[in-house]
Amino acid sequence: MSPDSAAPSHARGAEFAVPAPVAALLARLPALPGSLLLVTALNAVLIRHLPGDVRQRLAHRRLSIRVRDARVAFDFVWMGSHFEPRPPQAEPDLIVSASAHDFLRLAQRKVDADTLFFSRRLVMEGDTELGLVVKNAMDAIELPVLDPRHWSPRAVLARRTQAARGRA
């Protein structure tokens, strides 16, 4: 599935969707800067939470996160100690695709990956065993690591201020 593919046409209620004109603009942007931003976040947030067996299974595997309604893809690889961005790949080992809204809900733990998968809102293509490893690793990570509110500038500043006071 390409990032240009349309999102599923089922009823979405009050769900957020990236507006088509914004998605058209995003689809024209170079892919590598977005992948660099994603891997920077992954390296800052996830590395210390990935078990050794998961790190080993991910080694040099090509991954692609595709946000269907935004028409963007983030391609990267696990290098054994960190994630690195990659230019768009014709055949990554694993493609995980969903809408921006569903990825956000997944990160906030408002919905689980199985629910999205079985309702065909989250699609994994490629190495299914690798997909299960990634899904299980994400399920095992404790909140608030995946909650975007934990990483807002205000929340980060508050934690750093508290840590600095604790050292003083």
Automatic annotation (TrEMBL):
Record InterPro entries: SCP2_sterol-bd_dom (IPR003033), SCP2_sterol-bd_dom_sf (IPR036527), UbiT (IPR016830)
Pathway linked to the protein: Cofactor biosynthesis; ubiquinone biosynthesis
Family annotation (Pfam families): SCP2 (PF02036)
Keywords: Membrane, Transmembrane, Transmembrane helix, Ubiquinone biosynthesis
SUPFAM superfamilies: SCP-like (SSF55718)
Residue ranges occupied by any SCP2 domain in the UniProt entry: 54-139
Segments passing through the bilayer: 25-47
Superkingdom of the source species: Bacteria
HAMAP family: UbiT (MF_02231)
Protein task: Required for O(2)-independent ubiquinone (coenzyme Q) biosynthesis. Likely functions as an accessory factor.
Family under the similarity heading: Belongs to the UbiT family.
Protein name (database record): Ubiquinone biosynthesis accessory factor UbiT
Origin species: Ottowia flava
